[in-house]
Amino acid sequence: MIHSSLWTKNFTIITLGTLVSAIGGVAMNLALSLVVFDQTGSTWLSGLFGAIGMLPGVLLPALISPLVDRLSRKRLIVGLDLANGVLYLCFLLWIRYQGFQYGAYLLFTFLTGCIGAVYSLTFQCFYPQLIPAGQSQRGYAVSAMIYPLTTTLVTPLAAVVYDLWGIQPIFCWKGCCFCWPPPWRAASMRHPPFGMGSRPSPGLPPSRRASLISGGRKAFAASTAIWR
Prior knowledge:
228 residues; mainly alpha; Growth Hormone, Chain: A; 8 helices; globular
């Protein structure tokens, strides 16, 4: 069945949740890079900080993908968002009372990088199930616009906020961004087909599979006969 509208309930919820998280993410990435450079005055330490944050995204997807296949992707997304929110709010309290410590910032960016890598993999597997049938092109077009548009609009604003009030308001916003969408999404989103990705999609019936294999063999034989 082909839906006439892209903006179903599930798609609207996941898009709004992604937009809210993207706003906090763009602001946070800029603020973290600025505060590390301002406090250390070292481009090498700032570069190391950025590399540590990206390292989980390189290593974790290949290791964690079998686990993601076995779990409910909706619940995993909600849980990772909540974990991120709690982590940001806890680190906000840490820097409020302990000040800047480079080692703590390295550990923080590594942990958030791990959560982000698992979240990105889970989201990529779950997102296609929320796009209505026949609307894939439009759905992915909307998804592709979120982060470029957010980066363009939020980056200057985040720089102004950091310059005026420091990084703590941005930490608070980021933590609230992660903590607010998950319960709303969990309560609102219905299960997409095939159990939200908690199980593999059912395979083709044996008779249908045999028919496709037989047809493929005949097509291959016909194509090779032309070149004999």
